[in-house]
Amino acid sequence: MPGNVKTELPLFPPTEMAHFAEPYKKWAPEPYSQLPGPPGPFGVMVGDESPPPIIRIMHIMSMFDDIFEEASTHVMSDKGADMVERSFKIWFGIAPVSEARWKAKRLNEESNIEEALATIQVVIDVFDYLRKPAVQGQLRHVYNKIWAEFNVFQDACKALHTQRGEPVPDWSLTKLWEEYNKLHFEFIFNQSRTWTFQRLNILYGNWKSRFIAKCMSGPVIDATQAIIIIDRYAMMIMTKICDMYVQADLYIHERTDGFIKLGHYHPSFAAVNAPKAELDGVYAAIEDQRVSAVRATMQKVFDDRVAQRHRVMPFPDFIEARCLLVDREWTHKKLQSELENPLEMGMEPWVRELMDEKVERFGFVIYRLSYEGSDEEWKDFLGKLEDGLGSGWEDIIGADNIRGKAMLHWIDGREKDITEGDLVAARNSFNTFKETPDFPTGLSKTIFLAITLQSRKSFLSVPPTPVDQQEDYRGLLQAVSAGFTASNDTTPDPAQRTKPYTKGYDGTFKIIDQLIWTDLFAMSFQAVQNPETYWALAAQHPWGVYVGPTTGVRRRIWREMNGLVGGLVQAGRAVGLGR
User: Fold this and answer.
1) Closest CA to 319 of 327, 330, 311
2) In what order do the strands lie in the sheet with 476-481?
3) Strand 225-226 relative to strand 220-222: parallel, antiparallel, unpaired?
4) Where does residue 505 rank: exposed (0-12), middle (13-18), buried (19+ CB within 10 A)?
5) Strand 362-368 with 406-412, pairing
6) Reported confidence tier of residue 71, pLDDT bands at 50, 70, 90
7) What's the whole-model pTM score?
8) Rounded Cα distance, 142 and 139, in Å
9) CA–CA gap between residue 328 and residue 331 (Å, rounded)
């Protein structure tokens, strides 16, 4: 179960799985054997005969894609691709930005506070999106429909056992479904709250220390008088962080209103066939009431604190703003336990699954497509590559238990008659190789890596950059989607037409070494990886390299860099790193 929790409920027995994969008509007693097909578009039934239960449930699960439709339909917008990428990471309990990347980008330093806060704000924005009535309505609809399908299936199984004169089974798929979702929502929200509050706490502490040091730096006039210097910029940052504390507390919460037997079940939700807009309105009223109650509580505690301070220890007006900030900090600490007693991040699901002793290895096939240089130069490059790949594991919980299983299976392109840098030929070779018995178990069959001349030069000749930008310019690898085929929307037979990709996307993207395991493989392992989204994010970088989800702050800097003639971009192109 999510969060590494072991269920105490009876498990679904393998002996019943055959029924789960067969049409009701073949095994279930009446009336279950007469079930019609699931509703299709506009409520029209798809066929007179019900498909197997598992197909009915997969049909419902396909609706889940609509949850992120707003972000994915704007994948090429300034914010859309980042929202998609970070939403999927959050949904699967993966850190929005790994500790290694946070430290590499020096986001705790004062000079990078704007990007640090923007990075955290994107996470808060994801949950603000997920709490919208339309999105919650879709989540509620999918959950309840699947619950109903499980309920029908287990009732049919009970009827079958009763018909045979056998004991009624004690397992319950609906209860397992309820417990799974309860633990799933608790896990992903606890992961995100912990990640968010840990970083806000560090940033607030850093800027509070700066603020206090500035206050104490004024000259002392005599034993009873001194000049106090107020750091207005630090106060502005601390106020912004306090605002984000409120947003995080309001938005990063599990919401299961209207989920059958899982959350607050308002009587109006009982009308499961009511129009979605009506049910969404019920949720919206509950959510507005919840947010208003939290804000009102915070305001009352704050007002009481200010009133008490004015009675007991009044201060001159010129430092009232500073005192109000202290009052607000005190209010947050009283109402938000994470500030004084921060939670701990849990192990990410992909790490936990790879710890299984049955998993012998995981990783990627990697092609050498750069052939120039001596053996010593290649050996030197491999050392730098190994160091870069290893740097991404920092502070990943459980990493020490799986790092030894990580594997790159090297293929020298020369042995496959692949010309230097030919990614198309490498893709053809890979697709043939993955179908053979020699393909190593545990390695990705959807993505492979390649070392091109550009990759090698990125490890050997990175141009000088400002300190706060160095970790956006490091060794890179070429990632290649194995399933990519060129778009063709003109084929006469619609069934043979391929998906129209975004202009410029060729099924490849560049990615920095530090993200190979904890981002690329982690997302691939969860089967939610979308190479085109990676490419869209990479396209925003001056060198066209994926460096993880970004922010408007960083993209603004990149746009400014792109406009500088003779600047960093041209320096990169001079050593073969530009597009």
Assistant:
1) 327
2) 406-412, 362-368, 447-451, 476-481, 508-512, 545-546
3) antiparallel
4) middle
5) parallel
6) very low
7) 0.86
8) 5
9) 5
